[in-house]
Amino acid sequence: MKSCIAPGLLPFVCLLLMLGAAGAWAQTDAAGATAPQSLRPAVAPPANARETDNSHQDFATYPLITDRIAQRGGINGNISATRTVEGALTQSTYQLSTDTPGTDIWRNYEQRLGTAGFDVLYQCEGDACGPTFLRASPGYRAAGSLFDRPLSAQHYIAAQRTDSGGDVYTSIQTADTDDGVVIQVDTLRVKPREISAISVNAEQMSQELNTKGRVALYGIFFNTDSAEIKPESKPTLNEIAKLLTDRPDLRLLVVGHTDSRGSFDYNIDLSTRRAKAVVDALVDEHDVDRSRLKPWGVGYTVPRASNDSDIGQAKNRRVELVVW
């Protein structure tokens, strides 16, 4: 990085020049104003940034870093420090020739995210990001040669915005280089789920239990990497309660399933806690006799599809009811 300090240049003038450089931002993304909203980054890059790479996936499973990265093994070794989100993913890599430090570019992004209605989920600089942050970072995963810089050069922020069009998540990483700053902006847009398309009513559950002895449910939603049941799960919980009312002699195993990301023990624990949360909700909110329900977690030991694809992983994340 070049120094802003030059003979005869007053410190406050130097500061104004730095802020001016950081404040020069494009009004549209590098793809241009005509790019569909789903293909644009959450916030536009600096006006003089050069886009070196761009990719888009209509559906992706994305590990958003939300905590300090301290374990080896990249993302897979630090799954508990991430939030898994799914949706349309746009990834953009930029190079910026500037005397402005990466920390100033990063702070400007932080301000612009706030103006755009985003809430910061996690942010860090240098050592605060964790000793093994680099190889797990979005910049290194997308453009390893550009972001392979010392930890002291790294800056990171993750943010979320919720509106009527669905949640938007973004991770922004900047790193200082000899020629300026490199920037990685990953944006994932989550469309609201169509509950009616994945809900199963009590009659359908009963038929599946009669013919197969079990039924897979995809209408129970949890906050990422937690056992907290989301409000949109209510229709499915209501139908399970109706099933148990209609069939008073029925006893059920409530079995939690996960995909294969993360360690075996982690997923067994997560699936068990989620199964218990479903049982607790049925008992506490629907007056179901607890003795009729048994929670059980099997992690990723009983997949319905290959975990090698995003679609397969989505099929494997489920709650099943099994006749007991």
Automatic annotation (TrEMBL):
SUPFAM superfamilies in the record: OmpA-like
Cellular compartment(s): Cell outer membrane
OmpA-like domain ranges (all copies): 209-324
Superkingdom, natural source: Bacteria
Signal peptide boundaries: 1-26
A Pfam family that the UniProt record links to this protein: OmpA
Keywords assigned: Cell outer membrane, Membrane, Signal
Protein name listed in UniProt: OmpA family protein
Organism whose genome encodes this protein: Salinisphaera aquimarina
Species lineage: Bacteria, Pseudomonadati, Pseudomonadota, Gammaproteobacteria, Salinisphaerales
